[in-house]
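Training component of the fellowship. As part of building independent skills, the fellow (R.M.) carried out the full modelling exercise for a liganded target. The chosen ligand was 2-phosphoglycolic acid. The inputs are recorded below so that the supervisory panel can assess the work.
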Amino acid sequence: MRKPFVAGNWKMHGSKASIEGLMAGLNAQASALKNVDVAVCPPAIYMDYVKTLLNSPKIALGAQNMAQEATQGAFTGETSAAMLQDFGCRYVILGHSERRALFGETDEEIAAKVSVALQMGLTPILCVGETLEQRESGVTEKVIAAQLDAVIALTGVDAFTQIVIAYEPVWAIGTGKTASPAQAQAVHAFIRDKLARLNRSVAEKVIIQYGGSVKPDNAAELFAQADIDGGLIGGASLNADDFMAICQAASA
Ligand code: PGA
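Fellow's submitted model of the complex:
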């Protein structure tokens, strides 16, 4: 049995005041969390602030990105895996479609970051997903296979017991247009099957989150699918009640 995992991707949102309120809401409900792993991924500058406010061991910390350089060096503006570790961060989102599309990160760069995260003891949340154009031209599986293959080539398939995959169709992110449970399940099954061809026991263990407009009212149906093991939540993770309702849906 895979334990579901729900992570909140706050993206570039929040202020000290709004985060204080959000954390109060999460702290108040965290003790009710059972049979689900939960993380919040604030902007890097707020990581320590969130850590200070957090008063539950049931919620872990994650980052939204990190440098390819593991420790330190002349890389102005970057944050390293070692620095994230230093602040008690456990997860790091890598290859989010916004990083790919807006900041030009390639499959190879993302794979290199996944490898560094693993070496430094962080759990990568590796995002994969197709654009609407790619879906409509029938290359969804090809795109996702290439995104995964770049990582497999560098880390090997066995490393996927330590990697979380987040399937996020780009057309469903922040649009309110969620993939239907059947559409999402089909891609999740494709991903698990692809890994199973290389190592069946790894494929059975790997956590595959769904992301893209997950809300309290659609979460249960998505998480009921056989190969969906929780979610990567954007907009709804900025509201404590909504995020906790989604976490509860994953644990049900
Ligand atoms: P959304 O974002 O839930 O706001 O669609 C998901 C994500 O980008 O991780």
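The panel noted the following from the submitted structure. The two ends are 13 Å apart (CA to CA). The CA atoms of residues 223 and 250 lie 6 Å apart.
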